[in-house]
Amino acid sequence: MPNTLYVLNPNSSDTVTRGIDAAVAPLRVAGGPDIVCLSLPEGPPGVQTQRDIDALVGPLCAQARSLQPRAAAFVIACFSDPGLHSLRETVGVPVLGIAECGVLAALTLGQRFGVLSILPGSVPRHRRYFAAMGVEGRLAADLPIGMTVGELADREETLRRLADTGRQLRDTHGADVVVLGCAGMAGLRADLQERLGIPVVEPTQAAVSMALGRILLGW
């Protein structure tokens, strides 16, 4: 019986994938499904535009089809949830997106959630998605930190900008929970939460947690 939860990073950055793998390590438990994190070799170095998203859906679906015989579920580890509905049509197992799961987790932790995005161009794309989810009434704000996916490898600078922008979400916009808006930020959740003093959701952890529940409960 398939017993592997595949976490698919739809960009080609192995650095990002290693960060995701480390972030979900606490969810690897004895007797639970294997959790395998993979990059998409055909993907862009970072998913930063709608064109990036549109171009990777086909290769992402092909990757999922190749893994389907061993898959108990898939998680798409990009905050735009690229190809989410296409993958759900392609494979016969649960497929979860980290943006959807991250926001849903945030709604259980606070009344108004804020999002920390990478670039200004990410914000309108996220807002369209939040509107489709019907959660804009709970959104405090979505603010960019002004860094590309590649630049997130600078841990100290990324954490500094996340903390500065996170304080704006908390103090100016009234967010009482913050969602990290890029899988490349995965390893910074605990440090950022300590600096902000409010819950911080790492969306890949949220999605993997939900996927594990679905696998174990047979949903």
Layout of helices and strands, plus pairs?
Blueprint lengths: L3 E6 L4 H10 L10 E6 L10 H18 L3 E6 L7 H7 L4 E3 H10 L5 E5 L4 H12 L5 E6 L10 H17 L5 E4 L8 H8 L3 E2 L1 H15 L2
Parallel strand pairs: 1-2, 1-3, 3-4, 5-6, 5-7, 7-8
Helix pairs in contact: 4-8, 6-7
List keywords for this structure.
219 residues; alpha/beta; Rossmann fold; 2 domains; 4-stranded parallel sheet; 8 helices; 44% helix; globular
What this model shows, in words?
The chain has 219 residues and is of the alpha/beta class. It has 2 domains: 4-98 and 205-217, Rossmann fold (3-Layer(aba) Sandwich); 100-202, Rossmann fold. The chain is 44% helix and 17% strand. It has helices at residues 14-23, 50-67, 84-90, 98-107, 122-133, 155-171, 189-196, 203-217; strands at residues 4-9, 34-39, 71-76, 95-97, 113-117, 139-144, 177-180, 200-201. Strands 2-1-3-4 form a 4-stranded parallel β-sheet, with helices on both faces. A 4-stranded parallel β-sheet has the order 6-5-7-8, with helices on both faces. It is globular. The two termini are 16 Å apart. The relative contact order is 0.18. The mean pLDDT is 95.
